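Lab manual, section 2.4: Encoding a predicted structure.

Procedure: take the sequence of the chain (249 residues), apply the prediction step described in section 2.3, and record the output as structure tokens. A sample record is shown.
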Amino acid sequence: MLNKDELERYSRQIMLFGEEGQDRLKTSTVFIAGAGGLGCPVALYLAAAGVGHLRIADRDIVEQTNLNRQVLHWETDIGREKVLSVEEKLHDINPHIEIETFHVTIDDSNVSNLVDDADIIVDAMDNYHARYLLNMVAHEKGIPLIHGAIRGFDGQAMTIVPGKSACFNCLFPSPPPEEVFPVVGVTPGIIAMIQVNETIKCLLRTGEILTDKLLIWNGLCSEMECMKVSKRCDCEVCGTDIELKEKLP
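Recorded output:
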């Protein structure tokens, strides 16, 4: 049940989807993989929206080179664990939510336990190895996965519903070469907002989500387009599915 403070805090959202919808956000759990350029604004806006339980994992500490885009990390946070920096800010933004943080590298040994029984997984990573792991665990647990990635002025986003839509491996059967890529700070902000919007729609079971299509943002032209994506029968993750119990948030 929403208390008096929450009813006032979320009053403009309750005008859209009612107390029942707001309560659904409050009782939902979202796992955010990464507390950097994408993860910071994702966490900030999910917290502000009242998603009741956020689980955030990141292995890094705050560096000065992060500060042009990772908006929850400030000059005074340099040298701190990113997850601690984020947790502190989120508690100030919304004291009504619960936050769990994990200062770890997401790998084969812990990804399933980190995701646990989350309703949604948000991919806010900067490497493909972790993305493949998130895609695999999303498939195994039947949990929707919201993918996002950025480079320079460009970005992309996609929503994956196991058992229903094409998965991350369908679109990217092999990883691109690893690199340290350039990025302007607004790009992860734009893609993160799309990821948050997708997350909220999934949790509320409303609207049309980005399944079987990749949204592509071209910042230099200020244009968005959607590329159709098809499930691949030879996909090593989802290609051999016959039945998969789909977990809806």
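Check your result against the sample. The chain has eight helices and eight strands.
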